[in-house]
Amino acid sequence: MKRSIVGVSALVVGAVVLAGCSPSVGEGQGDEGEGSGIVKVVLWPGPEGDAMADVVDDYNEGVGKEAGITVQMTLLSRQDTFSKEATLMATKSSDQDIYFVASYNVGQFSSALDPLTGVDTANYFPVAVDGLSQDGELYALPLDVSNHFLLYRQDLIEGLLNDPAQVETYRSVAEQAIGEARDPKPADQWDWDDFKAMAAYFSESANPASPTRYGTILPAKNLLYNTMIWNDVLWGSGGSWTNDAGEANLNTPEAAAAVNVYADIYTNGWTSPDSSQAEFPETQAALKSGNVAFGLQWSAGFAELNDPERSPDVAGKIAIATVPGGKTHVHALAVAMNKYSTNKSAARNFLDYLATTEAMGIYAQSGGIPAMPAVLAANEDLNPAFSQIAESIDKYGYSVPVFPNTFQAYSKLAEDLSSAWIGEVPAEEALATANSDLANLLQD
Amino acid sequence: MATRGSKVDRSAKWVLGAPLIAFTAMFVVWPVAQGVQTGLYDFTLQNPEITFNGLENFRRVFSLPGFWDAVRFTALFAMVVTAVEAVLGFGLALLMNRRFPGKKLFFTALLLPIMIAPSLLGIMFRLLLNGDIGLAPAVLSALGLDISLFSPGTVVPLLIVLDVLQWTPFVFLIVYSGLQSFPTDVLEAAQIDGAGRLRTLTSLVIPIMKPVIAAAVFLRMIDAIRTFDVIYVLTAGGPGRTTTTLSIFIYKTAFESGDFGLAAAISTVVLLALLPLVPLVVRRIAQPEGSRS
């Protein structure tokens, strides 16, 4: 009895103490600092981290040395960089001076970042700058830019276009698939009905003579990055997340059509059932293996597919075209000032350097894809895709609205729609849920 | 009357236990207390001002979309894998509890899955089972079996099979260790009395091994409820919320929604739900039936 009383009392006291103290966080005050010393920057490993390392070396040996500033990069794991940064931001840490962010999470992180002022944004893709701005303020400096392409087997598509017998078969398959006996078109002229018809034509289930097992691979996994790809279908079908008044806009025929592009392909067997768990690596594997004729993929995927050592079966056969519907998601990977940094003036010196074409030229030469069209144009010999990336972003790029819950919205839409993408749930039902969730997130 | 000997004993247990107590206080009790505390606050990434909101987060937990789906899937998944692994692990332990050629090699191979980090195993499975480049689908195809391992109809059984492959050796190891200290005189007496193998197993081995089996089942059940890595790498909780476990749900609440207070509240609710099991199991393990305390 005595032990129980002591135990319960201890619990009550503990609860009162816990309730009275707030969670441990930093003091919550940044500082300009002395304009010199160490500046710590977070990056993630991979092509961006490798390219940035060369830029940092150049800065430390030149501009930084003159100013008495040394930049140190902190490489976190690629998978968990943003989670770890979120923890640092939530605790108002001053450990890092500059964070690595992206268009899709800058809204969520904005309360822990200082807006950047005095930046000449003329050198950047406007869509990249828009994607990092909230309420008219730029919160991060674009570093690397990503968009989507239609990657396709040029040999197979051209073979189809140039063979009258195949054209006839295609027309017959298209009539079954989309209700219209249309002629095949070059990949850069496809709309979403062409995409579906081609998926059927290059699938053994609809065309036993197909040279590939499936027409395409769909990135239909419940993953926020797959929402970014599906957004191309949505925007390309005339839809969008919000209307002109900024209200949720997913309960529309355009959005339903966009969901049904995926659902029709999946339920008709024109893509592997494994598409339900597919994202970037699975799309690469499907294209590399020769099992599919085309797929929507991030720009970073192209180089590997045309490398004879890494993709011996398809190297030299893969080409790039604009995403059907003429709309491609664009996001920028970027760097931003930590509001709680205690060396802001030195950090700003480094950010000013990063905003130059010289710095981004080094970045491009070291394997990055900078968000500056002039730098991409000047370095085309390094990566043949640069000119297509620049044109695609310039002509077809769009960015989703930036608000505090953008990151969560991507995740929520993947959760709400991924079952509909594979035909498990009717499109209208899933979109009603998604629209309601998006409306709540826009309001918060 | 307290003797000098018993005083020394009491002092000794505190001195010897001090490092573990300190470690537990620092790395278990304190973080758990902080977690519970975080649940009492409106603490989000989007709002830098942390404000006390009492039990509001806890109230929200039970009406969160997806929470009960996660509870259902986690409970079902944990029960099925624990049951299968308990039976298979016990069976393997009995089979291995004898001498045979190559036993050491087989024993080592059996333990390999539990030596690999779960997230790494998830990535390995993802490559192995990939429909286009994976070894498993290639073998199945060669055998004339055209099965898509990641289709909505097969993904849950697949996750169960992968968990069984990874964690059955854990149960096996605990039960096998228990069998090494099994009283052989009891078995000899049973043999003399003419008891057959099945009777010996059901009337002697299983009852005597109950505390060990209970420990293995309890540890495995708790781990199964906490499952995150393999499922997150393979399915990210999808399609939709089909394979979202409580751990994935909490992770997404914290790091995708940016709501640390709510995530902490969900974690605390799960902890409180599981806490009543602990005394039951401890009693079973520490005080087996028929023994004096």
Notes on the protein architecture:
- The complex is a heterodimer of chains A (444) and B (293).
- By secondary structure, chain A is of the alpha/beta class.
- Chain A has two domains: 37-146 and 330-398, D-Maltodextrin-Binding Protein, domain 2; 148-327 and 405-443, D-Maltodextrin-Binding Protein, domain 2 (3-Layer(aba) Sandwich), CATH 3.40.190.10.
- Chain A contains 19 helices and twelve strands.
- Chain A has helices at 2-20, 47-61, 63-67, 81-90, 106-109, 126-130, 154-161, 164-178, 192-201, 224-236, 253-267, 280-289, 302-305, 344-354, 357-365, 373-378, 385-396, 406-421, 427-443, and strands at residues 37-43, 69-75, 98-102, 113-114, 133-134, 137-138, 141-153, 214-217, 292-298, 318-321, 328-338, 397-398.
- In chain A, strands 3, 4, 7, 8, 9, 10, 11 and 12 form an eight-stranded mixed β-sheet that branches.
- In chain A, a hairpin with a 2-residue loop joins strand 5 (133-134) and strand 6.
- In chain A, helix 2 (47-61) packs across helix 15, helix 10 crosses helix 18 (406-421) and helix 18 runs antiparallel to helix 19.
- Chain B has a single domain, classed as MetI-like (MetI-like fold, Orthogonal Bundle), CATH 1.10.3720.10.
- In chain B, 71% of the residues lie in helices and 1% in strands.
- Chain B is built from 13 helices and two strands; from the N terminus they run H-E-E-H-H-H-H-H-H-H-H-H-H-H-H.
- At the A-B interface, helix 1, helix 4, helix 12 and helix 18 of A face helix 1 and helix 11 of B.
